[in-house]
Amino acid sequence: MLTVKEALSRQAAVALLGPRQIGKTTLALALAQERDAVYLDLQKPAEVAKLSEPAAFFALLRDRLVILDEIHRVPGLFPILRGVIDEGRREGLRHGRFLILGSASLELLRQNGESLAGRITFIDLGSLKVLETPLDQQERLWLRGGFPDSFLATDDRISLAWRDDLIRTYLEREIPQLGPRIPSETLRRFWTMLAHGQGGVHNAARLAAGLEISGQTVARYTDLLVDLLLVRRLQPYHVNAGKRLVKSPKVFIRDSGLVHALLNIPGLEPLLGHPVVGGSWEGFVAETLIGVAPSGTVPGFYRTSGGAEVDLVLELPGGERWAVEVKRSEGASPSRGFHEACEDLQPARRLVVHGGEGRHPIRNGMESVGLRELALELASARIGSG
After folding, report:
1. How many CA atoms lie within 13 A of 85 on its CB side?
2. pLDDT in tens, 290-347
3. What number of other Cβ atoms are within 10 A of residue 121's Cβ?
4. Would you state the pLDDT for residue 124?
5. C-alpha span between 353 and 290 (Å, rounded)
């Protein structure tokens, strides 16, 4: 909430983006109560009806924060908001006018590009991270993912059923309302294939062949899931090392719990024996560290055709480069490919992150560190940079 308050203190409009059921509305309602704001849920026809004359409605509330939930359902509001914000600025009302909530970035970004540039700040609200959950709940968070209702379910069976329902909601209701005409069963198969390849380099040709669709359609499906904040593209990190580098991005589903639901993995024991375990853990670690890194951090991965590889490269603001190898076991050693990649990258930090606790030095300036401890270090850097 502090991040949202700070953004409202310096900008007229703030857009809070995140997948459905991630907690945007809960946060907004808490803020509304604290600031005596006006909250409108634009999924409800009665609330939309209040905006039959939006400029006049907003004029009546010129001194109060207005919260517009599910704004992408009424895209015609964006040009109106531009006029209201500009008029308010001329009258000295420059900050804290609107808080906009959306479960998809594509509509908001498109409208922002047309009409709200320079008037809006975007904040991504991700799922729960290890620093927001109890110390002994890391495995549970990995299995169930970071959607609050999934993580807090009374048992794994109920958690899995909740995630299954969320997936169906996206396939049968949310995506059709956004406009793309995609058969829900085809999109589910595509999403499931991404789960099987979690953390792998994107192979559009293989996906297209498996689904009997074109490469362009694969790109469109991927773009859609990225815009819905459900999938992340991790771009290859380039340095002038004279090496032949992998150019395709890695693609992973951002919430590990959705990976496991798509693959029907009901508990931790079946997960540990499943072929996706390594990719699932790598995606969980990457999403955790990217989520707590300082604003302006550039994430990526490094891989050459000769086998040099770094699972996650973080270029922090200021240019300091961290190379991260992901391991499940606390005692695991870095691979030869990691050593070779570090010679190319010359990172300031060479880290092997694992699922245990504590840290200890390895040879050649490398350090083994637990996920929670490294996340805390990055979060501290974020506070310092802010």
Report:
1. 23
2. 999 988 899 999 998 888 899 999 999 988 999 999 998 887 888 889 989 888 899 9
3. 16
4. 86
5. 14
* Burial category of 56 from C-beta neighbours within 10 Å (exposed 0-12, middle 13-18, buried 19 and up): exposed
Q: Is the pLDDT of residue 382 over 70?
A: no
Residue with tokens 């290890």: 130
Tokens 């996650």 belong to which residue?
312
What is the sign of the dihedral through the CA atoms of 317, 321, 327 and 331?
negative
Measure the CA dihedral 326/327/330/336, to 10°: -90
Spatial distance between the Cα atoms of 277 and 114, rounded to a whole number of angstroms: 43
Domains and their CATH numbers in the chain: 2-124 (3.40.50.300), 130-385 (no CATH)
The whole-number pLDDT of residue 126 equals 84
Exposure pattern of 313-342 as b/e (b: 16+ CB <10 Å)?
bbbbeeeebbbbbbbbeeeeebbebbebbb
More confident residue, 134 or 112: 134
**Are residues 71 and 116 in contact, defined by beta-carbon separation less than 8 angstroms?**
no
Pairing of strands 321-326, 309-315: antiparallel
Cβ contact 210:136 at 8 Å? no
Q: Which tokens hold the place of 79? A: 């040009």
Categorise residue 21: left if φ over 0, alpha if ψ from -120 to 50, beta otherwise: left
Task: Say yes or no to pLDDT of 254 above 70.
Answer: yes
Q: Which residue matches tokens 């792998």? A: 200
Residue 119 CA, distance from chain mean position: 23
End-to-end CA distance of the chain: 15
Quickly tell me which residue has 């390849």 as its tokens: 197
Say if strands 231-234 and 349-354 run parallel, antiparallel, or are unpaired. unpaired
pTM: 0.89
- The closest of 326, 328, 168, 182 to 261, measured between CA atoms, is 168
Q: Which residues on adjacent β-strands are paired with residue 313?
A: 300, 323
What confidence tier does 189 reach under pLDDT thresholds 50, 70, 90? very high
Residues 6 or more apart in contact with residue 351 via CB below 8 angstroms = 322, 323, 324, 325, 366, 367, 368, 369, 374
Each residue's pLDDT tens digit, 200-246: 898 889 999 988 888 888 998 898 899 889 999 999 998 766 677 78
